[in-house]
């Protein structure tokens, strides 16, 4: 999380509706897109998680922090927080405390809809957006990534909107909020960490000779791989004679392949009627053979 000292301004973002109405001149430059914005939100969070994140704790102001009972398992509600869901980051800002936080989307390991009761109120359960946010600055002893959890509750008068499927049904404000966070999270996939690559993919990026790969040639990048040691390309019906003689013996340069080629591999067969195949000694055909074929 990064601390914000200045309140976000709407002019610094492109509204989502405007962004969708035209083709941008560049997909890599320009201001971030504002997917959702709401004022007067509440953040419901455990006291211990506030202690673990000074940036979030600053949102409640010094007076509220001093009045806290410091009960680790106690839930507190930080009121009056502005929420900005932008294509760049999720922004939370408290005008009262004149501070805020910027949360990168890859840090949000989980977000979901939740029903809860806001601490300090007598109101019934409301809907909120539950989030689990990683805090890499506080690693645990067992090397597992530490995280904090919080729920953002929108104001009761937040607007709804009709669904885009034409059914006429409406989405709750929190559902709209959830969809916005999901859309922006998809723009920021988790980075690939060293060692996460699939070993098979790494092997597939290289060529192997058939001998090195026990007869299995893997796909990769570049030109065609040598199918066997000593050859420079694939063995086909057209170039079979360059690698095997009529008896199936290896005649190409280098060592013959060490893997089994299967029955009949390497055998050169002449067409019927040539070199004594399918005919008499003079290369002709007897009448009986002809009669059988024409019947």
UniProtKB/TrEMBL annotation:
Its main location: cytoplasm. Keywords: Cytoplasm, Nucleus. Signal peptide: none annotated. It comes from the Eukaryota. Residues 193-203, 279-288 have a biased composition (Acidic residues). Residues 185-205, 247-295 are annotated as: Disordered. It holds the Pfam family Voldacs. The keyword Metal-binding does not apply. It is found in: Cytoplasm; Nucleus. GO terms for cellular component: cytosol; pICln-Sm protein complex; spliceosomal complex. GO terms for biological process: mRNA cis splicing, via spliceosome; spliceosomal snRNP assembly. The keyword Cytoplasm applies. This is Protein LOT5. It comes from Penicillium arizonense. The lineage of its organism: Eukaryota, Fungi, Dikarya, Ascomycota, Pezizomycotina.
């Amino acid at each position: 999380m990064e601390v914000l000292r200045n309140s976000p301004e709407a002019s610094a973002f492109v509204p989502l509706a405007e962004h969708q109405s035209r083709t941008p001149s560049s997909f890599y430059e320009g201001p971030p897109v504002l997917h959702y914005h709401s004022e007067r939100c509440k953040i419901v969070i455990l006291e211990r998680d506030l202690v673990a994140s000074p940036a979030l704790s600053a949102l409640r102001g010094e007076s509220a922090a001093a009045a806290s009972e410091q009960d680790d398992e106690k839930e507190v509600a930080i009121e009056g927080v502005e929420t900005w869901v932008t294509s760049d980051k999720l922004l939370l800002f408290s005008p009262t405390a004149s501070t805020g936080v910027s949360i990168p989307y890859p840090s949000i390991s989980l977000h979901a809809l939740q029903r809860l009761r806001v601490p300090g109120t007598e109101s019934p359960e409301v809907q909120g957006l539950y989030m689990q946010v990683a805090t890499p600055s506080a690693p645990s002893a067992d090397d597992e990534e530490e995280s904090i959890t919080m729920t953002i509750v929108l104001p009761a008068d937040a607007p709804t909107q009709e669904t885009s499927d034409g059914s006429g049904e409406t989405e709750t404000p929190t559902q709209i909020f959830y969809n916005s966070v999901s859309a922006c999270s998809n723009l920021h996939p988790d980075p690939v960490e060293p060692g996460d690559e699939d070993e098979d993919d790494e092997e597939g990026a290289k060529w192997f000779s058939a001998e090195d790969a026990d007869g299995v040639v893997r796909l990769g990048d570049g030109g065609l791989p040598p199918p066997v040691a000593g050859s420079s390309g694939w063995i086909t019906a057209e170039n079979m004679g360059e690698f095997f003689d009529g008896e199936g013996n290896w005649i190409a340069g280098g060592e013959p392949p060490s893997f089994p080629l299967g029955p009949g591999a390497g055998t050169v067969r002449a067409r019927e009627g040539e070199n004594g195949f399918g005919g008499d000694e003079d290369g002709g055909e007897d009448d009986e053979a002809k009669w059988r074929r024409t019947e």
